[in-house]
């Protein structure tokens, strides 16, 4: 039984969930980095090991998203993402475990080694891959029409949006806040003042914000934006918060309708770098530093930017005497070796450019 359902038993009957991950995920001190930047009480939440074979933050969302798909009796899920999307890959892998087919609709992003790896793993997981390079053109519109017709035929198909952020997916991170409270009660760490987390499709940050209120923790989320402002902003965060709060309240009326005002939101804007998936000097440095100092494996699109923001705030003495939790949203499980032997030419032709063109400058091996 997950902590959110223990607290609100009626949710158990009304919200389906597939057990996919391994929870609670550990909390560990980050003593060396904390010492370097003068944050004595710095900890890490290891969602990188949230699943046995594939971890990261998407597992918590997929427990709810795929639970819903199974209850709806679908045989296929379709989702969206950038070419190297961790969400798309996680969906493919966990859909497979539940005997659901997965189709991934992918759009361009800056090239990186992890993009190649994820694409090969998507393929090895047996996912259907559809790539939409370039701007919206007539041919893409025609392609979308074909896909649309396929949706219509297969009414049982379930569409999961970018990043897995629906009310149900976000509920996975409401639960995560209750999980954290349990760990604070067990003295795994003191009650945090701040949680640093990347802000993409917003489900992680907003789910935590709602969950922290519901779990009665004083902890505040520092959301480090890694996508354009049009995609993640105060208004959209509030809207998702309200929708998720209503969703839980409908499923169990004893779950209160929480309110969020926009001035409660801490949105860190300075580490995005102007383009999704583009590594910045700061993110690349944070990734290298976390690995060298603590053996923590991060990446440049999300977690490197979130850690860079934390390091910067720490060095500016903004976190002095604070209890700070870095929420690691990135998978750290190795892929099976067999993936290395996948020939990229087996993938749709239009994806070859990721393998034939070089990776972005900050991702090149020194
Ligand atoms: C998807 C993803 C995020 C962003 O989470 P959202 O809920 O979409 O905001 C952060 N980190 C990693 C590694 C991710 O793959």
Report on this structure:
Helix content is 42%, strand content 14%. With 366 residues, the chain is α/β, with parallel strands linked by helices. The strands form 2 sheets. Strands 1-2-10-7-8-9 form a 6-stranded mixed β-sheet, sandwiched between helices. It has a 4-stranded parallel β-sheet with strand order 5-4-3-6, covered by helices on one side. Pyridoxal-5'-phosphate binds at residues 56-57, 86-87, 163, 165, 198-205, 302-303, 329-330.
DSSP helix fraction: 40-55%
Shape: globular
Number of helices: 13
- Lateral strand order in the biggest sheet: 1-2-10-7-8-9
Strands, total number: 10
Mean pLDDT reading: 94
Q: What's the order of the H and E elements?
A: HHEHEHEHEHEHEHEHEHEHHEH
How far do the termini sit from each other?
47 Å
Structural class category: alpha/beta
Strand coverage percent: 5-15%
The Rg value, from CA coordinates, equals 20 Å
Give the ligands present. Answer: pyridoxal-5'-phosphate
Question: Uncertain runs with pLDDT below 50, 5 residues or more?
Answer: none
- Largest β-sheet summary: 6 strands, mixed
Provide a concise account of the structure shown.
The chain has 366 residues and is of the alpha/beta class. The chain contains 13 helices and ten strands.
Provide key terms for this protein.
366 residues; 14% strand; alpha/beta; 6-stranded mixed beta sheet; 4-stranded parallel beta sheet; binds pyridoxal-5'-phosphate; single chain; 13 helices; globular
């Amino acid at each position: 039984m997950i902590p959110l359902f223990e607290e609100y038993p009626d949710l158990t009957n009304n919200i389906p969930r597939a057990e996919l991950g391994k929870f609670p995920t550990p909390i560990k001190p980050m003593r060396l980095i904390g010492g370097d930047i003068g944050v004595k009480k710095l900890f890490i939440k290891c969602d990188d090991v949230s699943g046995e074979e594939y971890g990261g933050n998407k597992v918590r969302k997929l427990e709810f998203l795929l639970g819903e798909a199974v209850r709806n009796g679908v045989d296929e899920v379709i989702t969206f993402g950038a070419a190297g999307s961790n969400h798309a890959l996680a969906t493919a892998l966990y859909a497979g475990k539940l005997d659901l087919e997965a189709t991934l609709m992918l759009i361009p992003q800056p090239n990186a080694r992890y993009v190649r790896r994820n694409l090969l793993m998507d393929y090895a997981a047996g996912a259907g891959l559809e790539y939409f390079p370039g701007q919206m053109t007539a041919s893409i519109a025609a392609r979308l029409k074909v896909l649309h017709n396929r949706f219509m035929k297969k009414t049982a198909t379930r569409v999961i949006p970018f990043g897995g952020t629906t009310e149900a997916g976000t509920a996975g991170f409401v639960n995560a806040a209750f999980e954290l409270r349990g760990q604070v009660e067990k003295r795994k760490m003191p009650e945090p003042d701040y949680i640093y987390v990347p802000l993409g499709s917003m489900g992680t940050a907003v789910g935590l914000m709602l969950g922290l209120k519901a779990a009665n923790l004083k902890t505040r989320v520092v959301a480090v934006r890694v996508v354009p402002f049009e995609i993640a902003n105060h208004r959209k965060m509030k809207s998702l918060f309200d929708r998720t709060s209503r969703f839980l309240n409908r499923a169990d009326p004893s779950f209160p309708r929480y309110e969020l005002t926009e001035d409660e939101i801490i949105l860190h804007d300075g580490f995005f770098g102007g383009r999704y998936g583009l590594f910045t000097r700061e993110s690349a440095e944070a990734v290298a530093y976390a690995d060298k100092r603590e053996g923590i494996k991060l990446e440049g699109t999300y977690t490197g930017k979130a850690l860079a923001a934390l390091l910067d705030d720490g060095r500016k003495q903004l976190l002095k005497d604070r209890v700070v939790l870095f929420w690691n949203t990135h998978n750290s499980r190795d892929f099976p070796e067999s993936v290395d032997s996948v020939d990229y030419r087996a993938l749709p032709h239009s994806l070859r450019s990721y393998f034939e063109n070089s990776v972005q400058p900050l991702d090149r091996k020194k």
